[in-house]
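Protein modeling request. Please complete all fields; requests missing the sequence field cannot be processed.
Requester role: graduate student
Desired output: 3D structure, token encoding
Chains: 1
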Amino acid sequence: MRILFVINGTDFGGTEVSLAQTAASLARRGHAVHVLSLKPVGPLGARMAAAGVAVSSFDMPEAVSPASLLQAAVRLARRLRREPYDVVHSLLPRANVVSRVANRLAGGGRPHFAGERSTDFRRARAVQVLNRLTAGWSDAVLAVSPAVRDVLIARDGIAARRILVVPNGIDLREIDRVEPADVRGERGIPAGHPIVCSIGRLIPDKGHVYLLRAVAALAARPAPAHVVLVGGGPEEGRLRDEAERLGIGPRVHCLGVRGDAGAVLKASDVFVLPSLEEGFPVSLLEAMACARPVVASAVGGIPAVLADGATGLLVPPGELWGADARTADAAQAERAVAALGVAIAALLDDPARARALGAAARKTVEESHSLDRVVSMLERLYAGRRADPGIAPAVASAGIG
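Delivered output (401 residues):
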């Protein structure tokens, strides 16, 4: 098949990493895959191109407006008239709007699937409204988790029958080829001092500040834990300041954006995901695939894949959500910090339990979230066999829908 993926951008991020792995897998299976990045091509886009996946860009700016969306849709419509794609699959609201309108302008005739990957209500107003108004122009909306599906039904009024839950998958062969990074040597972390790793953009929603406070509360341990943060973003300065305020500055290591997240994970003792909202984080699957013991917030799609006490430990999020936006709640924040600290200490104090949870997490990924399994689901979907009885059982057996 000739498959066109449309995505907002190709910098490092969970959605972008998932797309890169999916596109490469489809290409290996003999499909002609093209990735269109609306914004300038980023590091992952360059990596996909180097791996043989066709990548192009419309070089759209970060700021969005109805005029810019229409302009991009017209450009894409011209391409769709010129190139005989068999299917268009977009990811994230901006790309969904642009590709839906373009498909209409080009005369339709090819299936369009829209990927939704977040439970977050905060979007640019124009994108949010247009995404809701054009949802019916997609053949199906692909939600990455049941939590995202429920938001689409409640917030956007999309009929449940039009939403398919297609989870993220992880390339286990790639994970298994990775050797641990020398994080201790790079950052001067003493032997015997545990490494607590978190991967994700440094933005408020990822809840990193609560992780720092939890680790600071464990300072009395004989071998104090070091925090390794992988990712970049606007919160880095505030997090560094908070680490200094808490007295743990030398034990907090911001590694920035890296292409070897699996290697860093394999060098870590515990993976922590203290997010305030999530659709279905790829970093969680990476940690589970690496057999790392996990502590994660019980938000969004996380509880659907991580079973508390069986494949990891779930804790309450750092802040509560109000009706329209996130609202600070001091008591909730204190409870979250305390719960994070207890969970992290429990894994560091009981290595046998930590290993058992990591092994069980790896088995879950092998059985339900391998990249091959997810790509096979997409192939059946793309081929137009939405009524294929193999699709729904595949989703259900993954514990995702």
